[in-house]
Amino acid sequence: MSSPLHLYVCVVPYKPIVGVIPPMGAGEPTWPVSSVSLISGDHFFGLNTILKAFPNARAVTTAAIGPEAQGQLGPEYMGFWNATFPGLIPEHPTVPVALDDDVIDLEGHELRIVNVGQADTAPSAIVYIPSLEAVIAGDVAYNGIHQWLAQTDDEKRLQWIASVEKIEALNPNIVVARHKNPEARDDDVASILGDTKTCIRDFNQSLSESRSPQELVDKMTVLHGNLGNPYTLWMAAQTVFQQGKGASS
């Protein structure tokens, strides 16, 4: 008989970054609070440190995400990461290898890898742990943090909502968001998933009514001023208007 699994979540606080746009409200440029699970992580630049501590471990990902991870090592992306986090990115980051299957056996328990498609980027996947009724949501769900919408358009944002609904269909009791308020609970599933979808819809509506990035930021701040890491919102507002979105003048 297998022993029960335990889920440990480490939350890393806000990290000051070198911003590429000036402030558009209160606060300074920061990277959002991030969570890392003992069972599964999301961003992979920390793998060098983990594998140094556990040299016999193997870093894995899905076949769909592997090429995307490899693409992050290109000159353009590495230039961005090194400029944003000077001196903190490994010179030769370890890239996870593709899994042969969508299920990992951990001491008799299944960890199911579910490709959901779109989140703040695509492709994206989650880890579902049936025995814990838990989902490690990666960037599909956010919890008390402004969402990274800078790499989305109208269609992608609607697809992101559909990805959140795939998590809802699993009916979990725990959802660990990659980016979360340090004080936020992981068991308030309805709020975590519902708020993630609401913020996307509010962004779409506010964008349709705004004629400038600042107006969009102001509208979203009124609606979601309680969310952390406003820099993420500023970046999204700047980017969508560079794409020619927003209300016509």
Structural class: alpha+beta
**N-to-C CA distance:** 66 Å
Measured by DSSP, the beta-strand proportion falls in: 15-25%
Strand order of the largest sheet: 7-8-9-10-11
Rg, alpha carbons: 18 Å
How many strands, which pairing sense, and closed or not: the largest β-sheet? 5 strands, mixed
Percent in helix: 25-40%
* Strand element count: 11
Labels describing this entry:
249 residues, alpha+beta, five-stranded mixed sheet, two-stranded antiparallel ribbon, 34% helix
Can you describe what's shown?
The strands form four sheets. This protein has a five-stranded mixed β-sheet. A hairpin with a 6-residue loop joins strand 8 (109-117) and strand 9 (124-129). The model has no long low-confidence stretch (mean pLDDT 91). Helix 4 (154-169) packs antiparallel against helix 5 (189-208), helix 5 packs antiparallel against helix 6 (213-224) and helix 6 (213-224) runs antiparallel to helix 7 (230-242). It is globular and about 55 Å long. 34% of the residues lie in helices and 21% in strands. The protein has helices at residues 47-53, 66-71, 75-84, 154-169, 189-208, 213-224, 230-242, and strands at residues 9-12, 15-16, 30-31, 34-37, 60-61, 97-98, 103-106, 109-117, 124-129, 134-143, 174-180. It is built from seven helices and eleven strands. The protein is α+β, with helices and mostly antiparallel strands and 249 residues long.
